[in-house]
User: What shape does this take?
Amino acid sequence: MQYMKATLVVRSKEVRDDGSIAEVVIWSLPEPLPPSQHSFKYRLFYGQPGEDRVRYDNERGKGDHRHVNGQELAYVFESLDKLLDDFDRDVQDWRAP
Assistant: This one.
């Protein structure tokens, strides 16, 4: 297996007052990770230890997708800004009463 040289774009982790965790990790790749058409590898997580409430990620062979309340859904990547906005929207929707 050949590994691509990646450059870290952002890594942040916030533990909130209620114990939930919001974590964002984004890497820039020299070429797309198939079947994705963009050159980013990412993992965005919101939940508790051992409990994914909202997660966005992409992986070789599977591509861009998101997980919300244990359900895996397709995701169409348009830009990093939109990815972060969509993730934040899903987190807010999950937290809404």
